[in-house]
Amino acid sequence: MSEENTTRVPVKFLIESAWEAEGELIRHLSPRTVDAITKILPIEGRAALWKEEVYFKIPIKMGDEKAKPSVEKGTIAYWPMGEALCIFYGTTQPYSPVNIIGKMTENLEVFAKTKSGNRIKIQRR
Question: What CATH number does the domain containing 111 carry?
């Protein structure tokens, strides 16, 4: 397996089958969390909104791993308290500390159009 495959996992987000965005999961940021998520891809859920964040519950229970109370725009994170995958498309800070697992690389703006209840799917690119 190449280093590219083990340290960075390219992913695609499909929102209501209408919009697509791309990102990458970066293993060194939270290795156990990234490993757990990549093992069960693709994952699908229903969007929930909080300020300038879209999140959806995923079937993983992880504790804090290098958890941070603040994030940058474009961050992909796992929220241990809510057992959810989060995409921060604005300047919002998390409700509680999150495990940072990656970053968005293309079309971050589609998350601003996402409505509560929209179907979101994350899969390998």
Answer: 2.40.100.20
